[in-house]
Design brief:
With 170 residues, the protein is mostly beta strands. Helix content is 14%, strand content 46%. The protein is built from two helices and ten strands. The chain has helices at 22-39, 144-149, and strands spanning 2-5, 8-13, 16-18, 50-60, 63-72, 84-90, 96-103, 109-121, 124-134, 154-159. It has a seven-stranded antiparallel β-sheet with strand order 4-5-6-7-8-9-10. The chain has a three-stranded antiparallel β-sheet with strand order 1-2-3, with helices on one face. The longest helix is centred in the N-terminal third of the chain and has 18 residues, at 22-39. 13% of the residues are buried.
Protein backbone atom coordinates (compact mmCIF):
# COMPACT_ATOMS: atom_id res chain seq x y z
CA UNK A 1 0.00 0.00 0.00
CA UNK A 2 1.39 3.38 -0.99
CA UNK A 3 0.52 6.35 1.22
CA UNK A 4 1.34 9.94 0.35
CA UNK A 5 0.45 12.67 2.77
CA UNK A 6 1.71 15.80 4.47
CA UNK A 7 4.47 13.76 6.13
CA UNK A 8 5.84 12.37 2.89
CA UNK A 9 5.59 9.02 1.14
CA UNK A 10 5.44 5.57 2.76
CA UNK A 11 5.14 2.10 1.25
CA UNK A 12 3.72 -0.77 3.28
CA UNK A 13 3.80 -4.48 2.48
CA UNK A 14 1.55 -6.66 4.68
CA UNK A 15 1.17 -3.71 7.09
CA UNK A 16 4.96 -3.39 7.49
CA UNK A 17 6.72 -0.17 6.54
CA UNK A 18 9.25 -0.73 3.76
CA UNK A 19 12.37 1.45 4.02
CA UNK A 20 13.01 3.42 0.81
CA UNK A 21 15.77 5.73 -0.30
CA UNK A 22 14.66 9.31 -0.86
CA UNK A 23 15.17 9.02 -4.62
CA UNK A 24 12.94 5.92 -4.91
CA UNK A 25 10.36 7.42 -2.54
CA UNK A 26 10.20 10.51 -4.79
CA UNK A 27 9.62 8.35 -7.88
CA UNK A 28 6.78 6.49 -6.15
CA UNK A 29 5.33 9.71 -4.72
CA UNK A 30 5.25 11.22 -8.23
CA UNK A 31 3.39 8.13 -9.46
CA UNK A 32 0.79 8.51 -6.70
CA UNK A 33 0.49 12.22 -7.59
CA UNK A 34 -0.15 11.30 -11.22
CA UNK A 35 -2.94 8.87 -10.34
CA UNK A 36 -4.45 11.41 -7.95
CA UNK A 37 -4.23 14.23 -10.51
CA UNK A 38 -6.01 12.28 -13.25
CA UNK A 39 -8.60 10.86 -10.83
CA UNK A 40 -9.66 14.37 -9.82
CA UNK A 41 -10.03 15.82 -13.30
CA UNK A 42 -11.40 18.27 -14.19
CA UNK A 43 -11.25 19.87 -10.73
CA UNK A 44 -7.48 20.51 -10.65
CA UNK A 45 -7.81 22.49 -13.86
CA UNK A 46 -9.13 25.45 -11.88
CA UNK A 47 -5.87 25.92 -9.95
CA UNK A 48 -4.37 29.42 -10.33
CA UNK A 49 -1.30 28.22 -12.32
CA UNK A 50 -3.45 26.47 -14.96
CA UNK A 51 -4.12 28.06 -18.35
CA UNK A 52 -7.04 26.57 -20.32
CA UNK A 53 -7.93 27.10 -23.95
CA UNK A 54 -10.98 25.62 -25.65
CA UNK A 55 -9.74 24.35 -29.02
CA UNK A 56 -13.22 23.46 -30.23
CA UNK A 57 -15.69 20.62 -30.43
CA UNK A 58 -14.63 17.33 -32.04
CA UNK A 59 -15.93 13.82 -32.58
CA UNK A 60 -13.87 10.84 -31.43
CA UNK A 61 -15.15 7.32 -31.98
CA UNK A 62 -18.65 8.62 -32.65
CA UNK A 63 -18.96 10.74 -29.49
CA UNK A 64 -18.87 14.53 -29.15
CA UNK A 65 -16.15 16.18 -27.08
CA UNK A 66 -14.89 19.56 -25.94
CA UNK A 67 -11.19 19.62 -26.78
CA UNK A 68 -9.22 21.66 -24.24
CA UNK A 69 -5.54 22.61 -24.22
CA UNK A 70 -3.88 23.10 -20.83
CA UNK A 71 -0.55 24.74 -20.03
CA UNK A 72 0.92 25.83 -16.71
CA UNK A 73 2.57 28.95 -15.36
CA UNK A 74 6.15 28.51 -14.17
CA UNK A 75 5.17 29.92 -10.77
CA UNK A 76 3.20 27.22 -8.90
CA UNK A 77 2.97 25.11 -12.08
CA UNK A 78 4.96 22.21 -10.66
CA UNK A 79 8.25 20.63 -11.63
CA UNK A 80 7.08 19.86 -15.18
CA UNK A 81 5.29 23.17 -15.79
CA UNK A 82 6.44 23.19 -19.45
CA UNK A 83 4.42 20.07 -20.31
CA UNK A 84 1.36 20.62 -22.50
CA UNK A 85 -1.89 18.68 -22.09
CA UNK A 86 -4.92 18.09 -24.26
CA UNK A 87 -8.19 16.80 -22.82
CA UNK A 88 -11.30 15.54 -24.55
CA UNK A 89 -14.28 16.11 -22.24
CA UNK A 90 -17.42 14.20 -23.17
CA UNK A 91 -20.10 16.78 -24.02
CA UNK A 92 -22.81 14.78 -22.19
CA UNK A 93 -20.96 13.60 -19.07
CA UNK A 94 -18.16 16.22 -18.92
CA UNK A 95 -15.76 13.39 -18.03
CA UNK A 96 -12.32 13.28 -19.66
CA UNK A 97 -12.40 10.16 -21.83
CA UNK A 98 -9.12 10.96 -23.59
CA UNK A 99 -6.01 12.93 -22.75
CA UNK A 100 -2.69 13.61 -24.39
CA UNK A 101 0.44 15.25 -23.16
CA UNK A 102 3.72 16.46 -24.50
CA UNK A 103 6.55 16.12 -22.00
CA UNK A 104 10.19 17.15 -21.99
CA UNK A 105 11.85 15.08 -19.23
CA UNK A 106 14.16 12.20 -20.27
CA UNK A 107 14.24 13.25 -23.91
CA UNK A 108 10.55 14.07 -24.08
CA UNK A 109 7.73 12.61 -26.08
CA UNK A 110 4.02 12.55 -26.70
CA UNK A 111 1.47 10.23 -25.10
CA UNK A 112 -2.21 9.74 -25.79
CA UNK A 113 -4.44 7.92 -23.31
CA UNK A 114 -7.86 6.42 -23.82
CA UNK A 115 -9.83 5.78 -20.62
CA UNK A 116 -11.73 2.55 -19.99
CA UNK A 117 -13.00 0.51 -17.04
CA UNK A 118 -14.57 3.42 -15.17
CA UNK A 119 -15.40 2.76 -11.52
CA UNK A 120 -15.85 4.72 -8.31
CA UNK A 121 -14.23 4.19 -4.92
CA UNK A 122 -14.99 6.51 -2.02
CA UNK A 123 -16.76 8.85 -4.44
CA UNK A 124 -13.64 9.21 -6.63
CA UNK A 125 -13.67 8.20 -10.28
CA UNK A 126 -10.90 5.83 -11.35
CA UNK A 127 -10.24 4.61 -14.87
CA UNK A 128 -7.66 2.46 -16.56
CA UNK A 129 -5.90 3.74 -19.67
CA UNK A 130 -4.61 2.49 -22.96
CA UNK A 131 -1.32 4.37 -23.23
CA UNK A 132 -0.19 5.23 -26.76
CA UNK A 133 2.99 6.84 -28.11
CA UNK A 134 3.01 9.31 -30.95
CA UNK A 135 5.98 10.46 -33.01
CA UNK A 136 4.84 13.94 -33.94
CA UNK A 137 6.29 17.35 -34.49
CA UNK A 138 5.13 20.33 -32.44
CA UNK A 139 2.54 21.37 -35.00
CA UNK A 140 0.93 17.89 -35.14
CA UNK A 141 0.47 17.48 -31.38
CA UNK A 142 -2.95 19.16 -31.49
CA UNK A 143 -4.09 16.54 -34.04
CA UNK A 144 -3.16 13.44 -32.04
CA UNK A 145 -6.86 12.53 -31.76
CA UNK A 146 -7.06 12.27 -35.57
CA UNK A 147 -4.15 9.81 -35.55
CA UNK A 148 -5.88 7.81 -32.81
CA UNK A 149 -9.01 7.61 -34.94
CA UNK A 150 -6.93 6.39 -37.89
CA UNK A 151 -5.18 3.80 -35.64
CA UNK A 152 -1.80 5.42 -36.34
CA UNK A 153 -0.60 5.46 -32.70
CA UNK A 154 1.51 2.74 -31.10
CA UNK A 155 0.02 1.07 -28.00
CA UNK A 156 2.82 1.17 -25.40
CA UNK A 157 1.05 -0.20 -22.37
CA UNK A 158 -2.13 -0.45 -20.39
CA UNK A 159 -2.30 1.40 -17.11
CA UNK A 160 -4.50 -0.67 -14.85
CA UNK A 161 -5.28 0.32 -11.30
CA UNK A 162 -5.93 -2.69 -9.10
CA UNK A 163 -6.91 -3.23 -5.49
CA UNK A 164 -7.96 0.40 -5.08
CA UNK A 165 -8.72 1.48 -1.55
CA UNK A 166 -9.71 5.01 -0.57
CA UNK A 167 -9.54 6.01 3.07
CA UNK A 168 -10.20 9.46 4.47
CA UNK A 169 -7.33 10.89 6.49
CA UNK A 170 -6.71 14.04 8.47
Amino acid sequence: MDVKGSRGFNRFVNDSLVPLTDSIANVYANSVNSVHYFAHLPYGLNDPAVNKELLGEVTVRGKEYYKVKVTFDQKDGGKDYEDIYLYWFNKETFKPDYLAYKFYVDGGGIRFRAAYNERYHGGIRFVDYENYAASLGDSAFNDVDVLYEKKKLKLLSKIELKDISVTASN
